Every structure is written in structure tokens, then in C-alpha cells.
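As promised in the previous annual report, we have extended the structural survey to additional targets. Below is the entry for ECHD2 protein.
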Amino acid sequence: LRFDEKVRVVVFKSEVKGVFCAGADLKERAQMDDAEVGHFVKRLRNLMDEIAALPVPTIAAIDGYALGGGLELALACDLRVAASSAKMGLIETTRGLLPGAGGTQRLPRCVGIGLAKELIFTGRQIDGQQAASMGLVNHTVPQNNEGDAAYQRALTLAKEILPQAPFAVKMGKLAINRGMEVDIASGMAIEGMCYAQNIPTRDRQEGMAAFREKRPPRFIGK
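The corresponding C-alpha cell record, generated without further manual editing, is:
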């Protein structure tokens, strides 16, 4: 996906009705020794980092349970859409663990330090409506008979992104992600560097031409 230039948006959904991702298999984990657990969690953390680093926008369609590593997967995405009946939580402390695939870092960046601490310390599960109210998800929708309401809403969101200039969207994502980790002056410099990369693109010229000619732009990602 990272190197396929035809990919504009990636949507993560589950093929299992009622479950987005239930996290690690603790029965399997119980058979591992300490070293194997450490290796397993490191690989999982690396996977989430790879997802977070995808250059195109990513959307998690949470139509059911997103628990532990399942919520960490959703947090690694840029945007999240949930069914109102979905259940989410970093429940690791209820099993003698702590989030180990990015949850302790991405949740506070998403909902703020106080709420993140409360959710992680208690291991509490929340539904889609609660998640929306605290900013954990971008949108919440009533579940439908097919059980894929969040996925359908995620597709609608993806279709809003698709017509936009692909390279500009990628640079926007890069500027936000890098800029959020530094002071604002450094962030402005990062934005400037990303903007400079966008200036010579054919899509920028096309956008200006389409505006002058009062027609929809035809972006090609170049």
C-alpha cells in the first residue's frame, strides 16, 4: 500500500460481524515465555507504527468491539468512524497488562491526558456515542441491519477525500503528524518544507487552472 500510487485512502474494516478487532489472543499469549511476549509486543508496536506512517489517509471503521490492541489499531489510523453500539477500550489493566502497541501514546494525543489516563487506569469500555463526545472518533452512526454502518460511513468519508489532490493530501498529513510532535515554530518550518514540495506539482497548476476556468479539477497525483 505504501508504494502503490493508485491508493488514495485506506479503510480498515473487519470481516467478523460485531467485532472490529478484539486484541491479542490471551490464551495464545499465556503459552509464551517472557522473552516471547516482549518480542510479540514489539512486532505489534512496529506494525501499528507502519500503519500510522502510511502516506495516505487511513480510516478505521469500528462496527463492533475494538478492545486492547484492537483500539490501538484504530488509534494508529488518521480517522475513526464508529457505530453507536460499538464498544471500545484499552482494557489491558484488567488483565494485569498495560497498552503496549502505542495506546499510552496515541490515546492522550487523541483525547487529552486526563481522559486517556482515566480510560487506561480503569480499563473502561465505552460505546460509540461516548467515544464521539470525547473526540476519540470523528463520527458515530446508528448500526444497521447488515452490521456495517460504520464501514458505510467510512466509505462516504473516503469519497470526500478521493477527489482532492493526492500529493497535497499526503503533504498535509505529513505536516500535521510531524508538526504535532514539536513546538509551533518548528511546526511552521515543517509546514513550509511540505508546502515547498507541493509548489512544483502538476496538480497545483491544475487546481489554479480549474479555478480560473470555473470547472472541477482533474488531479493526477503528480
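Residues 130 and 192 are 37 Å apart (CA to CA). The mean pLDDT is 94. These points will be discussed at the next consortium meeting with the crystallography subgroup.
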